Structures are given as C-alpha cells and as structure tokens.
Amino acid sequence: MNLPPYQDFPIISDEKIRLRQIIASDLNDLLEISFYDAKQAKNVEQAIEIQAKIDKDYDDGNSIHWGIEAISSNKIVGTCGYYRGLNKGEGELGCVLLPQYRGQGFMTNAMQLAIDFGLKNIGLNRIWAVTSKQNNKAIKLLERLNFIKLTDLPDDEIEYELKN
Q1: Structural domains of the chain, ranges and CATH numbers in brackets
Q2: Does the reported pTM lie above 0.85?
Q3: How far is CA 163 from each of CA 72, 75, 146, 150, rounded to the nearest angstrom?
Q4: What does the alpha-carbon distance between residue 48 and residue 54 come to, in Å, rounded to a whole number?
Q5: For residue range 90-104, what is the model confidence (pLDDT) as tens digits?
C-alpha cells in the first residue's frame, strides 16, 4: 500500500481533465459543492474550514481529494476523491460536479482516473461508492464504470462496489 500523503501531491490527467490539489483561489468557485460529513459550506469562510479538514485528512493518510480542472479552460468544475478506508486497503470514492458542467463527460473521466490511481498507486483492494436512490445519473455512471449494487442503506441511499 502506498498511502498519502505523498512527497508531491499527485496530479493525474487525460485529454479532457486534470485532477489536482485544491488551492485557496479555487474555493470561491467550489462553494456550491463544498461539503464535509454531509454539511455544506454556506460561505467562503466555511469552505476554507472544510478544505482545512480535507487537507488534514490527507496529511493523516486517510483521504485524497482532487479538484477536477477542465483542461480546455483551466477552470475547476468539481471535486473527486477517496474519503475513508485507505488504511484498510479500501476507498470510498466520491465526486461532485458543479451543475453547469454536468452531462459533459467530466465525471466519467474523473472517476476513471481516480479508480486507476486507487488501484495502481495506492494499492486498494476494494473501491465503493454511495449515492441516493433518486440520483439516476450517478447510478448509471457507477454501473458504466463496472460498479455493482451491494446493498440498500438507510436514508434512501445505495452502496455500490467496483468489480474488476
């Protein structure tokens, strides 16, 4: 296993997106999708506090959280990362995209890059994701990426697991 933190924060990319470290100047653009433990930031100050918690989780080796940057515009369009379980060889993969960028393939690319990184670089044995039963687009994305439904969870959510 090759757990974070890394000497250099990993930047991974394909022809469409770059997954990179989130920096302070990104937070205003990400305010709408800044969450920690299902609590959303209401202002930039709270987004800064959330990002500090996310950064601490990374420094502690418990997570890795990238900003999704569109290569064509160099704009941050969302976030993606592993949020728990790394020390057990597992990773819960989660992603959020700003509404104006949905349906353009950004999330498919981000999830695939993160999956590849988790398997090849971290050495994860298991990757899972949780989504709402009503989030049909997320369900279709997970299934397209070879995740299978594991179980129904409380609060109207579903757990999926990647099957290689």
Answers
A1: 12-123 (3.40.630.30)
A2: yes
A3: 32, 32, 6, 11
A4: 10
A5: 999 999 999 999 999
